[in-house]
Design brief:
single chain, 489 residues, alpha/beta, Arginase, Chain A, 8-stranded parallel beta sheet, 8 strands, globular, binds zinc ion, His_deacetylse_dom, histone deacetylase activity, hydrolytic mechanism, hydrolase, transcription regulation
Length: 489
């Protein structure tokens, strides 16, 4: 008999949304997604999971990331913050170049500065001002939790001085460029105001999702935790990459492995190869990383992810790369996931010691604004995820995370539809009608060109560009054979 399914959803406060909306690659995406979810009241069938920024410490971040890199990332940068506060207060003077993206956000969004009272209230909600509640004392030991930790621990010694200098202290542009280049904080990963807070939020949201899942798992149920703010799969130990500054996925998996979940199946559905996670666990036979991604050797970011890259040492075979060509259809996507994930779930991990972590990037949708590589539709992707991953034979718990996706209304629709379908798995009577975008939706205007319909003409598969699926049956069979022959247990 199948266990009941319970769903937990990260609950972002307005301040959290304001900060995550600043991510240059996905401006306003968090607010637009959260707004649509709440317009349909989809959160009502979920346990809401609070973000606790105050619990993210340097030690926690350094459980994967390089100490000096974290120190540099978490520096306060008064000039950027000053510009940000000025901007929020409507003072348009001297907004520097790095701030152009945030200016745009403020123009099209309706964010307003929080009053100091609201600010204090939000800090309280997020555990920044409070003592740690008793029930979290145990976790505190594991994760070494205190807000002070981030600012005072591990003060740099003089030998580390080159990394302790604030960027603003550099006198020449060359020097500035060198340190930014060292950590890849240039091009697609610029420093931006509120970056330290953003890092704490992304990390905390995934860690708290994992903690919720572990707590729920004692109740003889299948917990499904959802955090659309997470899924930053490219970040490396000492380097930002592809819009990702810290790798919340690796940090979440590390946390899970300190609990009864000794084995983890990580599945990455983003159009791009999940290189940061694969690299982090390439020597592990306890964490199997499976990435379905578009691959064009040497020509498509992150320029790796071939089927031959299979992990090393004890981890040999536990890195599973599915490199795919242009035009991937819903049908072929489903066949592949079924052929690779179903046997993996059967053979890897016991009922009580294994968990699935799923990165739900949606830049493989046919109408993604930046990448028009595959022919996947929202309903096609969601149906495959539900059928072959979430409702898995062993009822492994699942943590669902966000990821890439560069059309904000695609993201809000995809993650809403995913949540609606998950709610139905939890209780078939949960069947919210998504036909019309609710009139009270704050971002209603964004859906105007599709007549305020959820399934507008631009996201129906009939409208797909019909790019040819270059993934032939022979090619897919060959990939599946290679992976299956590795016999991962
Ligand atoms: Zn991507």
């Amino acid at each position: 008999m199948r266990k009941p399914v319970v769903i937990g959803l990260i609950d972002p406060t307005p301040q959290v949304l304001e900060i995550t909306d600043n991510l240059p690659s996905n401006e306003l995406r968090s607010s637009i997604t959260h707004s649509l979810i709440t317009s349909y009241n989809l959160q009502e069938s979920c346990d809401m999971i609070a973000i606790r920024r105050g619990k993210v410490t340097r030690k926690l971040l350094q459980s994967f990331h390089d100490k000096k890199y974290i120190r540099f990332l978490m520096k306060s940068r008064p000039q950027l913050e000053e510009d940000y506060n000025d901007y929020k207060l409507g003072n348009k003077r001297n907004i520097n170049d790095g701030w152009e993206s945030c200016r745009k956000i403020r123009k099209i969004g309706n964010a307003r500065p929080l009053s100091s009272k609201e600010d204090e209230q939000k800090k309280d909600e997020e555990g920044m001002n409070n003592e740690t509640p008793d029930e979290d004392k145990q976790d505190e030991d594991k994760l070494a939790l205190s807000e002070e930790d981030l600012s005072s621990e591990d003060e740099p010694s003089s030998s580390e001085s080159e990394n302790s200098i604030d960027l603003n202290d550099y006198s020449t542009n060359d020097e500035k460029h060198q340190i930014l280049e060292k950590y890849s904080l240039i091009y697609d990963c610029p420093l931006f105001p509120t970056l330290p807070d953003y890092i704490k939020i992304v990390t905390s949201s995934t860690i708290e999702s994992c903690k919720w899942l572990v707590k729920q798992s004692t109740n003889n149920c299948q917990p499904i935790a959802i955090n659309w703010l997470g899924g930053r799969h490219h970040a490396k130990r000492a380097k930002a990459s592809g819009f990702c500054y810290v790798n919340d996925i690796v940090l979440g998996i590390q946390y899970l492995r300190t609990t009864k979940y000794k084995k983890v199946i990580y599945i990455d559905l983003d159009l791009h190869y999940g290189d940061g996670v694969a690299e982090a666990f390439k020597y592990s036979n306890k964490v199997v990383t499976v990435s379905f991604h578009y691959h064009d050797a040497g020509l498509f970011f992150p320029f790796c992810g071939s089927v031959e890259e299979r992990g090393q040492g004890n981890g040999e075979n536990y890195c599973v790369n599915i490199p795919l060509k242009q035009g991937l259809s819903n049908g072929n996507f489903e066949k592949l996931v079924k052929s690779i994930i179903t046997p993996l779930i059967e053979e890897f991990g016991g009922v009580n010691d294994c968990v699935i972590v799923l990165q739900c990037g949606l830049d493989g949708l046919f109408n993604d604004q930046h990448f028009k590589k595959w022919n996947l539709s929202i309903d096609g992707m969601v149906s495959t995820i539900i059928k072959h991953i979430v409702t898995n034979e062993k009822q492994f718990p699942v943590v669902l995370l966000g990821g890439g996706g560069y059309s904000n209304t695609n993201s809000s629709r995809f993650w809403c539809f995913m949540l609606k379908e998950l709610s139905k798995v939890s209780n078939p009577l949960n069947n919210v009608d998504l036909t019309n975008i609710p009139m009270e939706e704050k971002f209603l205007d964004l859906y105007e060109n599709e007549s305020h319909l959820f399934w507008g003409v631009n996201n129906s598969l009939q409208k797909a560009s019909m790019r040819k699926d270059l993934n032939s049956t022979e090619y897919l069979q060959e990939i599946v054979k290679i992976i299956r022959d590795r016999n991962i247990k």
